[in-house]
Amino acid sequence: ANAPWQRLRRNLLLLLQLLILAALVLALARPALPLPGLGGGNTIVLLDASASMQAADGAAGTRFDDARAAVDQLISGLNGDDRLTLIRVGRTPQVLAAASADRPALRRALAAAAPENAAADWPAAFSLAAGSAQGLAEPRIAIVSDGGLPDGLPSLPSEVRFVPVGRAGDNLSISAQAARPSGGGADLLVVVDNPGATPRSALLSLTLDGVLYDSRRIELGAGGQSAQTWSLPDAAGVVEARLAARDGLPDYLPLDDRAWTLLEANAERRVLLISEGNLFLERFFAILPGAVLFRATPDEAGPLLAEAGAPFDIIVYDGVPLPAGPLPGNALVFNPQNPPQPVETDAVPLLATTGVFTTTTAVRVADDPLLANVDWRALSVAEAQQVEAPTLETLVEAEGGPLLLAGEVDGRRVVVFTFDLRASDLPLQIAFPVIMANITAWLSPGRVIAADDNLQPGSPVSLLPDTRAAAVTVTMPDGSVWQQDVDRAGPVLFDQTQQTGVYRVTFRDNTGDTQAGGAFAVNFFDTTESRIQPAAALQIGSAEVAGDTTGIEGLRELWPWLLAGGLALLLVEWWVTYRRALRRPLFRTR
To answer: Mean pLDDT, to the nearest integer, of 344-364?
Structure first.
């Protein structure tokens, strides 16, 4: 003690205490290692699930597989304070996990994610990401994508990182396919694209009802296009076009190599117009797709219906008396007139007119599918018939009485306009073709109704069953079956159209009997998604975000390990200090 300068004696306890102190000091300094991860923050991941992410040029398979691997790496790098929000960006963006640090839950959500056969809605995804960032401390947004984002996207209220996937842009696609009746058959048009930067050679094959009909070799320049036409026989039903590369180069996106057209779905819809002459109705049915119009005066209608055996899908009564007995088919009535008095029948008339009214301003409009996308506020009607029809439901009602009625009577569907088209401005409004299309679709039972001949994946389809149908069944392209009971209040909405191919519809009645309800095809025609060349940078608002091929790099903090080491050293020191005392016996004997 009297010698201030001397060599320190070896002391194990002192060494352990110094090590414990060093561990505590280093833990307070919070050292960290750069690692792929989040680095102590809140990150919102936008996972691209568009159709182009199915391109098979990824290191782990498809681009979506690579994207999942990149997100899984972020999940592995989660620290104690990290939170990750996972948003799948598809046709409708969806939050799979919100501000979570639960690695197993995040991995389950990631494993359940899958790409769609459609384009992604990036503006909606950006809005969802901006909303998710509200209230988070220093949030970051990571976009894991091949870069196929649209132009004009707004800026985001946080730091944005772009993790690119995809390595090549070689692809061939069928960008359009359509058919139209011609003579005794149909004319078919198929458009083939080469969105890549290399000239390509391909084989385009055409099958009719599963039997090869024709094959053509097509040469396409870089970014080129070729339109091919065929004249098909009248016996054709399902037409399928297939595209295959024949130059040894890859075609990374098989989704757009097949297309279907149903000629049988465009079967004729026979319409009988009983009128003294109505140019508005004649022009509408002349341009209605698939409609074949037959005209007849009231005197000609009876013999025509009897001779043909009532083969008409829709019978239009325009200002003429209705039959005294049951209707011979589904009917559309304008300016109804009382039927002639029955001679030897007790049949109850469908309706009765008791006069006219001129207070025709609509005061009530029912919430009915027949009135979808129709605005009745601007309708002007000079006068309408006062109609009593207890079996029909009033859809549009004016102060003086109903303007539009609809319902089912004796298994027949009926729609009644209580006014003359020529006494209104309805034919001059955009609402006229809309409501007429809705009505003619509803009056054609058992047909598949779609807004477009070329349905895209994910588009809903309205199915209009027969009045006797109790259930509707849809057989999808992969053979799986979708079934739903029929709601007689309106059409059946089918929205399971993610697959491309042919969908078959059948209806079943209460006795168990089934009848074919038609078919429809879903095709993938999207030139933007078929252009699969990966992007090196994204334009987000006014800033360009370059792709970071190394992923998101964070910091792995080491203070938990340092504290654990200090605690271990403390236990060692305690053991060294008290080991002699532990070896002493608790009781001594003499």
So the answer is: 80
